[in-house]
Amino acid sequence: MKIFILLFAILCNAALSAYGQLVTLSDVVPDAILEIRYFSTYNFVGVRIDGYEQPKAMMTQRAADSLRAVSEDVKQMGYRLKIYDAYRPQRAVDHFVRWAADIPDTLMKRYFYPDLDKSVLFEQVYIAEKSGHTRGSTVDLTLFDMNTEKEVDMGGTFDFFGPESHPDFCGNPDTDTFIGSYSAAGRTITPQQFHNRMILRQAMLRHGFQPIDTEWWHFTLKDEPFPDTYFDLPVK
């Protein structure tokens, strides 16, 4: 019995310690708008994702502080940040992996991957067994225009699987130069939509975040505090 109590205490202390590494984003960036897609059913799976017990966003303190600087930056341009996802438990990533292996389940295909056969999602790395989100310093987000009271038009939806989501689609993100092109499916974006993506990208870069090549909405703090730690605490 004493051994059981000791083990329980150790597990509880470990959980409390891990939660101590994460903060509630709304406490640090109160101006951010939250639309936590994986708490809802409007996502590429079509159900609430494991580990999302509340519609809240969590991040490491360092990442949240940097995102607050981004928020203050874009507010001067008339925008607010809108958050789709931040810290993501490993159990949620595992849920994605199970879903991707279930090839017949294509409930949300027409919204998020209309041009892809689901069997290629692993091969093309749209789904992977590990995610930077699980380290607590990665965020998926967009801009909200305070004048129009609408999301800024980025020319594509969050979590769309395809080249249209790449930051260099139709332009050079390093120079903010629109070039123009079409995807294999015949899709394109306008110069304004490309520029809108660059407004977000440049604000994130100015405050220590780095982008990836495949998603205009995804950024990770360069100096992340837990580069080798994958947390599995539920979002609550």
What does this structure look like?
There is one protein chain. α3 crosses α6. This protein has 6 helices and 10 strands. About 6% of the residues have low confidence. A hairpin with a 6-residue loop joins β9 and β10. With 236 residues, it is α+β, with helices and mostly antiparallel strands. The strands form 3 sheets. Strands 2, 4, 5, 6, 9 and 10 form a 6-stranded mixed beta sheet that branches. Helix content is 29%, strand content 15%.
Features:
alpha+beta, 6 helices, 236 residues, 29% helix, two-stranded antiparallel sheet
- Radius of gyration, rounded? 19 Å
Structural shape: globular
Seen as an oligomer or otherwise, the chain set is single chain
Instruction: Tell me what portion of residues adopts beta-strand conformation.
Output: 15-25%
Between the first and last Cα atoms, what is the distance in angstroms? 30 Å
The main sheet comes to:
6 strands, mixed
What share of the residues lie within helices? Answer: 25-40%
The stretches of 5 or more residues where confidence is low (pLDDT under 50) are: 4-17
Average of pLDDT: 93
Order of helices and strands: HEHEEHEHHEEEEHEE
Q: Can you count the helices?
A: 6
